[in-house]
Amino acid sequence: MVLDRLAAGAGRSARITHTEHLPPRAGTHAIWPDRIRKEVLAAIQRAGIDHPWAHQAAAAEHALDGESVVIATGTASGKSLAYLAPVLSALLDGSQAPNGRGATALYLAPTKALAADQRRSVKELAAPLGHAIRPAVYDGDTPVEEREWVRQYANYVLTNPDMLHRGILPSHPRWSSFLRALRFVVIDECHTYRGVFGSHVAQVLRRLRRLCARYGADPVFLLASATSADPAVAAGRLTGLPVKEVADDASPRGELVFALWEPPLTDLHGEKGAPVRRSATAETADLLTDLTLQGVRSVAFVRSRRGAELVSVIAKERLAQVDRSLPGRIAAYRGGYLPEERRALERALHSGELLGLAATTALELGIDVSGLDAVVIAGYPGTRASLWQQAGRAGRAGQGALAVLVARDDPLDTYLVHHPEALFQQPVESTVLDPDNPYVLAPHLCAAAAELPLTESDIALFGPAVPGLLPQLEAAKLLRERPSGWHWTRRERAADLTDIRGGGGRPVQIVEEGTGRLLGTVDESAAHTAVHEGAVHLHQGRTYLVRKLDLEDSVALVEEANPPYSTTARDTTAISVLETDTEVPWGDGRLCYGSVEVTNHVVSFLRRRVMTGEVMGETKLDLPPRTLRTRAVWWTVTEDQLDAARISPEILGGALHAAEHASIGMLPLFATCDRWDIGGVSVPLHPDTLLPTVFVYDGHPGGAGFAERAFHTARTWLTATREAIASCECDAGCPSCIQSPKCGNGNEPLHKRGAVRLLTELLRTAPPPPQDAREG
Q: What UniProt keywords apply to this chain's record, in alphabetical order (predicted)?
């Protein structure tokens, strides 16, 4: 067995903390709805598919009934065919319409690569249907001379939410014939639309629906998602429509052996003398090397581009020591590669010429990779949905397969490899988004008004926050009310008010100092921590040092370098309560949710060795403070609770700080966020609550829905936090439990045992269900 051979090395077997065996599953066939055109069924049969799986037929039935539907089944379960069958059938019907153009369909993908991949799939499947199906990609890479053809003649347009927001909707008169005939909108990988990005996409879709209605169309939305909790609820929040749900996966699956793997402790010591584990990157490179030597076709998923390149380089070096011909059988695969490079890698993996890839999530989002025997996941990818999406890449041809999750030195990863039930006995997360966030909604109201004047009838479409926002937009001289509605008043494009993937504000341009070449941009909100003077910046596998950050002109000047370290910004944070929306008693203390203002000041940065994480030094910075109005969850404790927990004034700050760090690290298990999406502050005596208080807040203006999720899952979230700290084998705290890689205070002060006692007392008085009825 592959896993037995991986575990055979010295000390290897002790690194496997749990092995889960998922049994094979037989498939269940059904019959396509009889309303699908015979020519489409014949084309599907030519592709080698005689009968659909039951979930494919069910989703197609909803689509043909005019019901929006989300299909939330596993990787390689045939979701694409479930929506393509009714879409191609409608387009074929429309091609024979007397008006010539006939029906149209729009496909939205989160990445350009996935849209291009889908176009190839559609062309292959629809080839027997001739010129009746005319798919075309319309994105930022589409040549200008092709764009007019796409608008005039394509009936299946594949794009992304960014292009819909900036290119298609503002130019809707030129798209009028396409929008007038729009029957279906396909939203692929819809579980990726979460947080602030998902909230922006939700408003872009409302603008699309409004313009379709203007042209007399009412398209059906077909959504494809990785398995997730309450997919119909999330899809309804995204589209603003009632959505049917198809979540019973009827496709077959081979046996999957899933191992949880914890790298060993090293002789190195980190901050405050804390023990340091071997990095997940180095451990993953070893596993990929061993799998390649066994002839096992594998993919290692790594969270960063640099990490993917590093795993590939280390694995190649180790293979070269065994056989000079072997390094050529390993490659890196990530965003930033040219399409022809990406295609060549996929072909080489399919053919067996390549045995292993070190890949970023560019490979996770639906790119067609089949026939893999093993997947290694370097660090928990942030959500159970992504974990299963990545693990599902192994065994796609129905054979047995292996998946290995390699834990990073991080509270959540450490907790998961010692609590397998949190992965294997829990449903995947709900997708969290908040379309009513005023920081998201306001620029989209402006964009909508620029497309067509806003009227009273639009208020229901855009949500209950609209009446309160319109007067503010008028006062800011962005909109003007006239008898025909609210009009956009500026000469510039309203769609440029917001970057739907960013946090607002003018992006900072990253420019190579010697050549003047623009390398990319970073959100204004992230500039102080990401491109401060002296920061290490990665771009397409190359490393740069930031020489100067000009905040006035929004430019960071960089030069190529190869320092042996990475950089981490240090900051101080203060928080004030603006409004408490909800609060519940926790014994004498309280659990609250509401609006806060966060003042953050980046004061220095650390240099850490790349391979070990060892701190090499700290450099002061001179940057202005920044303020953020957002949403937070917070809890307070009283003197009596502190006495019961044996928390003296000397250790109170450290106990609160340790609990705050660990709770931030654990929140991604309960809300679809990354620890970098959220922040925290702990205060022994907060001026607004007049009590010891721990805050956890959304790191986005107006909030992203994560703090609200934390409030509703507080009991299970903080129980898991306490367990993560208590079960860690270190003495006084380490990166696996209470130390944070982004702590603004250099992980000072921290008190591990105090945090355990404090959380134990807090949870002892936590309210029972149904107060936390929305947990899970």
A: ATP-binding, Helicase, Hydrolase, Nucleotide-binding
Residue 280: CB atoms within 10 Å:
27
* Highest averaged pLDDT of the listed ranges 110-119, 161-170, 307-316: 161-170
Q: How far apart are CA 697 and CA 720, in angstroms?
A: 19
Judged by DSSP in three states, 404 sits in strand
Q: Which two tokens stand for residue 694?
A: 């721990």
- CA dist list (Å): 455 to 449, 450, 635: 9, 12, 42
Name the pairing type of β-strands 401-406 and 256-261: parallel
114 φ, ψ (degrees, to nearest 5): -70, -40
**Which element (helix H / strand E) includes 499?**
none
Give me the pLDDT at residue 505, please. Answer: 64
Closest to 748 measured CA to CA, from 759, 739, 757, 758:
739
Give the 3-state secondary structure of 296-348: CCEEEEECCHHHHHHHHHHHHHHHHHHCCCCHHHEEEECCCCCHHHHHHHHHH
- With 70 as the cut, is the pLDDT of residue 300 above it? yes
Enumerate long-range contacts of 452-460, CB under 8 Å, 24 or more apart. Answer: 452/210, 452/211, 452/214, 453/482, 453/484, 453/485, 453/486, 453/487, 454/479, 454/485, 454/486, 455/484, 455/485, 455/486, 458/210
Mean of the pLDDT values across residues 9-23? 90
What average pLDDT does this structure show over 230-239?
Answer: 93
Residue of 397 and 751 predicted with greater confidence:
751
Confidence of residue 372 (pLDDT cuts 50, 70, 90): confident
How far apart are alpha carbons 375 and 367 in whole angstroms?
15
% of the chain at pLDDT higher than 70: 93
Name the residue among 372, 370, 368, 206 with its Cα closest to residue 292: 372
pLDDT band at 556, cuts 50/70/90? Answer: very high
| Neighbouring C-beta atoms of residue 475, cutoff 10 Å | 9
| CA pair distance 559, 536, nearest whole angstrom | 10
Return the minimum-mean-pLDDT range out of 35-39, 300-304, 441-445: 300-304
The overall average pLDDT reported for the chain is 89
Domain range list for the chain? 38-246, 253-417, 438-496, 508-563, 570-765
How far CA 377 is from CA of 116, 127, 387, 432, in Å, comes to 26, 37, 8, 24
Residue 337 has pLDDT above 70, yes or no: no
- Asked whether the bond before 749 is cis by omega within 30 degrees of 0, the reply is yes
User: Would you identify the CATH topology of the domain 38-246?
Assistant: Rossmann fold (3.40.50)
Comparing 38-246 with 253-417, is the CATH topology the same? Answer: yes
Q: Tell me the C-alpha distance between 776 and 773, whole Å.
A: 9
- Report the CATH number of the 253-417 domain: 3.40.50.300
Closest CA to 449 of 241, 164, 163, 169: 169
pTM listed for this prediction: 0.82
pLDDT band of residue 696 (cuts 50, 70, 90) is very high
Extract the tokens encoding 295: 């002839």
The helix-helix angle for 339-351 and 112-126 (nearest 10°) equals 60
146, pLDDT greater than 90: yes
Rg, Å, the chain Cα set: 27
Sign for the pseudo-dihedral over CA of 90, 95, 98, 103: positive
CA pair distance 452, 479, nearest whole angstrom: 12
**Bridge partners of residue 609, in order along the sequence:** 565
Does residue 221 sit in helix, strand or coil? strand
Residue 276 CA, distance from chain mean position = 28
